[in-house]
Amino acid sequence: MSLDALRGFDMFWILGGEGLFAALLMLTGWSGWQWFDGQMHHSQWHGFTFYDVIFPLFIFLSGVALGLSPKRLDKLPLSQRTPIYRHAFKRLGLLILLGVLYNHGWGTGAPVDPEQVRYASVLARIGFAWFIGAMLVWHTSLRTQIISAFAILIGYGLLQLFMPFPNGQAGQFTQTGSINAYIDTLFLPGISYQNRALDPEGILSTLPAVVNGLIGVFVGQYLVKQQQALNKLSGEWVKVITLLLVGALLIGLGWLVDMIIPVNKDLWTSSFVLVTSGWSMVFLAIFYGIVDVLKWQKWSLVFVVIGTNAIIIYLASSLMNWQYFAQSLFGGVVNVAPASWQQLLSVMSLLAVQWLALLWLYQRKIFIRI
C-alpha cells in the first residue's frame, strides 16, 4: 500500500499541489513559505530542488514494482514468453504515443507535420526506463543487473567528461555545449522542448534514467526478501532503517560526485541519479514504515486514490481543463472569500475536482493500467 501512497504523493504536486505554498504565503505573509515555494520549481540549471525528484521518483517506483515480483523468462519456452514480450513492446509504444499527446495538449493538438512533433517526453522516458529494466530483470541475474547499473552510471559520466564531438568540447555541462545537446540535435526526430538544442527528455539522458529504475528494482527485491530477525516486525524495521541509511549514503555520494559532474536534471547526470535515487529511498522508507509497518493507513487513502491511477491523471492534466471544472463548481465560493484566501481556495478546488474524479474510479475499482 505504501507504494501506491508514495506514487500518489508524488503525483499530488504535479496536479496542483505545487501552488499551495505560494497561496499560503499570500494568506499568512510568513516569509518562510517562500523557501517552500522555491522547492516547488525545477532548478534553473545546476542544483537540486524537491520538484526535481518528482520525475525520477516515479521511475524509481516503477522499478520497485518490478522488483517486488521479479521473474526470469529466459528459461521459459518461447511460446510462454511471447505474450509477455508483446505486452512490454505494446506498453512502451503506448507510453511514447501518450507522451506525444501530452506534449501537444492544452487545447492545441499534435501537428500533422511529423517534423513539428515533439516525440521525447516524460512518459516516453518512463517507458524506456521500465522496458530496459524489465528486459534485464527477465533475462539476467541480480549480479548482472547491479554491474549493468554501475556500468551505465560510470560510463555515462565518463562520456560526458571525456568524449570529444564535432564543434564541441568534452566536459561541457552547458545547455548548448554538452554532448547531450549534440546527440539530440543530430538524432532526435521532430522538435525538442521549446526548440532548444537540448531536450530535457532527450536521447542520451534517457540512459542514466534506467539506473533510477534499476535501483528501484533492487529495493523491491530487498523488501520482499525474508529477514533473519527475532520476529517479523523487527525485520521490517531493519528494512526501514537500511533504506534510510543507504538513501542517505547515496545522497552524500551524489553531492561528492557533484564536485566533478554537477547535479543537473536536464542532463540527468550521474550525480543527479545518485541524489534522486537516495531521496527516493528515503521517501519510500518513510512511507513503508508508516503505512505498511505501523499500519497507519487511513490518512494515506488521500494519496492512494491518486497513485492507483497515476499515469491516466497525469495525461488528463494536459488533455483536460481541470481549472474550468474547478471554477464551475467552486468559483462562487472562491469569489466571495476574502482576497487573501482566494488563491489558496483556487488551488484546493483544483485539487478537489481531480481527486473526486479519481475517487469515483477508485471506489468502482477501475484502475487504468498501461
UniProtKB/TrEMBL annotation:
Transmembrane segments: 12-36, 48-68, 88-107, 119-139, 146-163, 203-224, 236-256, 268-289, 301-324, 344-362
Acetylation found in the keyword field: no
Protein name: DUF5009 domain-containing protein
Keyword flag Nucleotide-binding: no
NCBIfam families to which the protein is assigned, alphabetical: NagX_SO_3504
Keywords in alphabetical order: Membrane, Transmembrane, Transmembrane helix
